[in-house]
Amino acid sequence: MLRAICGDSFESFHPVSPCRDEPRRRAQRSPARAGAAGRGGEPVRLALAAEARGRRRRAPGLSALRCHCPPEEARGRALEQAREFARAIKENGDRVYQVRSVGDLGGEGLGLMLSMEGVEALEGDPAAFDEFYELGVRMVGLTWNYVNDFAGGIEDQTRGLTDKGRVLVGTFAERGVILDLAHASDQTWRDALELDVRIVVTHAGCRAIREHPRNLADWQLEALAERDGVLGLMGLALVVDPDKPTLDRYVDHVDYAVSTMGVEHVGLGADFIDQVGETERELGVAEDMPPAMVEALEAGKTRFGLEDFTGPEHYSRLVERLSARGYEGRRLYDVLGGNWLRVFRKELPA
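Structure (tokenized):
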């Protein structure tokens, strides 16, 4: 899939919801994907709409979003998304622009940077990434949970980088493309750590707080910090704590990550924040859901998002909770977006 990351000078990084229309592929196994979509112009629409909501509801400083746009037909669909994305940028040129290099980070308005989550669009050919790089892709996650030609996902923790995957990651290192290890298997992690490439995790939680395969173990947190990477903490009940789906519990993940990694390696990566209500209505039962969540889901009462954090207008609440936990000044700035900005400035091509 292609996705877009956007922000006012990238002062913060707040992943949001999927778009719409994705067929219910693997919905029973993966509720996080149910109801997602794949139109390339949607990142622009969602970015502008969420920014407006945040400003209307007194959420100053909201400036970065990510929108999932998964290609069901691999390369052809991904390229179509990229074309639509470019058209949407052009049509809204007075408010948004595309970020391809460090020099673009200080532009006026909302800057959008393309990335990929899952590289099925390359159709097994590392050289095919050249085309996507020229389109502006600057961050890549090799897999979305499942094994592919390049890497293993969390569905099988023993499968790691393939020979093709190592070649592709080498290309990233040469070109200033950031490797996103969200959804990657433990073995893919270990293999990637052997290579000289910038790594981040855009959306996950801490396994010590909530045991879930999408969350990171301490060794992963420590390795990410050693590589000067950033963890974007995910704001969904399934990974935060389905028994306590609250913003306070989310901040527990922040505290734990900071205590393990250092504040300079912790950021935001909320994920499906802009369409929580819609996604909740479309959830299917997943294999790893606790019994209480399955019961609530079947009764139509489950929460996909957090009780008090369901839209961009609620980021002001997060700032308040972080401040109450002692995050002020530079520490608060770094968590809200400064750390992501540091990585982008350091790693994007000149």
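The longest helix spans residues 329-347. The longest strand covers residues 110-117.
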